[in-house]
Amino acid sequence: MVERSRDWLDQAEGDLEHAKNDLRSGFYDWACFSAQQSAEKAVKAVFQKLGAEAWGHSVYDLLSILRSRLEVDEDLLDYALELDKVYIPARYPNAHPSSSPRRRYTKREAERLIGYAEKIFRFCESILSKI
């Protein structure tokens, strides 16, 4: 397997920028989803660097697996749980009883999830600088 942790982290950073742009533009559903994507890709960058396979899209599950090799703060796991909750509902109308995802997410929620993604991104960036 070719080691591409830098590419994964770069894309995670781009997704974080995308989330912030969507927040500014009022696309709160996409801001939330992009925040989740940023965190997922940042964690997968660490897996890449460790030469480990990373399957699935749950940030929580991925961080939980990493705990067997690295110290992962409990707060990050809590943030990951929150981010995982938007993976599908932020994109699909049938994930909600009525209306579309674009009507279901708020500025406050997007700001909170972007903050969580930033913390996970910084954690992964720090780990990558040490291994």
Report what the structure shows.
The protein is mainly alpha-helical. The protein has a single domain (5-130), classed as Four Helix Bundle (Hemerythrin (Met), subunit A). The chain is built from five helices and no strands.
Give a short account of the largest sheet. Answer: none
Strand content: under 5%
* CATH class category name: Mainly Alpha
Total strand count, please?
0
CATH level-two architecture: Up-down Bundle
Low-confidence stretches: none
- C-alpha end-to-end distance: 17 Å
Number of helical runs? 5
CATH superfamily: Nucleotidyltransferases  domain 2
Overall helicity: 55-70%
Looking at CATH, which topology would you report?
Four Helix Bundle (Hemerythrin (Met), subunit A)
Structural class: mainly alpha
Count of folded domains: 1
Quick summary:
By secondary structure, the protein is an all-alpha fold.
Set out the fold topology:
Blueprint: H1 5-25, H2 28-50, H3 59-66, H4 74-84, H5 107-130
Helix pairs in contact: 1-2, 1-5, 2-3, 2-5, 3-4, 4-5
Task: List its salient traits.
about 65% helix; 5 helices; Four Helix Bundle (Hemerythrin (Met), subunit A); about 130 residues; single chain; mainly alpha
